[in-house]
Amino acid sequence: MSFDPVSRLDGKVAVITGGLGAIGYATATRLAALGATCVLLHRKGDDAAARAAALPSANGQRHAAIRADIVDTPSLVAAAAEVKATLGRCDILVNSAGHTKPVPAADLDALTDELIDDIVRSNFRGVFATIRAFAPMLKASGDGLVANISSIAGFTGVGSNLAYVAAKAGLDVVGDALAKALAPAVRVVSVSPGAVESGFVPGRGAEFASKMASTTPLGRIGQPDDVAATVEALATTMRFVTGTRIVVDGGRHL
């Protein structure tokens, strides 16, 4: 395969989990504008088909939305089969689904066994299961890209809760292992934001965003498009990159 930069993604198929979320949809918008056909995987969303249809269609591509839950492996297998049957390929997989709940690191009792299992299941196991389901098509592409939306929590140890920290750290390390296992046909990269302006973490509003911005070297928190732009770069210009972490946090981790 060639690692030369490209400017367009015409003919490529991109599958985005959490496709209706802020980061997922921003990423789909960028990839679609470059000619990729995008498939939004979502757990629930009555407007999913309409939002898929609203994505840019620079060369007449018809985007799609498929209901699938990353913690339900049969639904992922079914989604991959549908993509294969209808589009014939998957070249880019963006894993942006997951969820969390704020729990102070010192409050050990609040981080129950059930919550740990839930967080790890959705933020680690579900991502791995998604990669597993789409790996055959990614390998068949010969020019596959897996972009795992991770977090600086995975290497700073500071995040919404310690189970989330562990899940993202595990995702980063396993992503590196998969980059070796799936090379050279598929590249695997972790994209690690800091605080992003979205509703991902419940209960964090304008006051939290202002506090985070004031202690971030570049003076603001991230936007979903900051993360989406990084995935776009990995698909187009940063094509000799695999098995590593791209930090997109305005210096928040420093």
What multimeric state do the chains show? single chain
Number of E-state strands: 7
Strand order of the largest sheet: 3-2-1-4-5-6-7
Total domain modules:
1
Helix amount:
40-55%
Strand content: 5-15%
CATH superfamily: NAD(P)-binding Rossmann-like Domain
CATH topology: Rossmann fold
Mean pLDDT: 95
- Assign the structural class, choosing from mainly alpha, mainly beta, alpha/beta, alpha+beta, or little secondary structure: alpha/beta
CATH architectural grouping = 3-Layer(aba) Sandwich
End-to-end distance: 36 Å
**Spans where pLDDT lies below 50 across 5 or more residues:** none
Order of helices and strands: EHEHEHEHEHHEHHE
Largest sheet: 7 strands, parallel
Determine and state the CATH class.
Alpha Beta
Number of helices: 8
Write down the Rg: 17 Å
Shape: globular
Characterize the structure shown.
It is a single chain. This protein has eight helices and seven strands, in the order βαβαβαβαβααβααβ. It has one domain: Rossmann fold. α1 (22-33) crosses α8 (224-236) and α4 packs parallel to α6. With 254 residues, the protein is of the alpha/beta class. The chain has a seven-stranded parallel sheet, sandwiched between helices. The chain starts with 12 loop residues before the first strand and ends in a 6-residue tail after the last strand. The model has no long low-confidence stretch (mean pLDDT 95). The relative contact order is 0.16.
List the helices and strands and how they pair.
Layout: E1 13-17, H1 22-33, E2 37-42, H2 48-53, E3 64-67, H3 73-86, E4 92-95, H4 113-141, E5 144-149, H5 153-156, H6 162-181, E6 186-193, H7 206-214, H8 224-236, E7 244-248
Parallel strand pairs: 1-2, 1-4, 2-3, 4-5, 5-6, 6-7
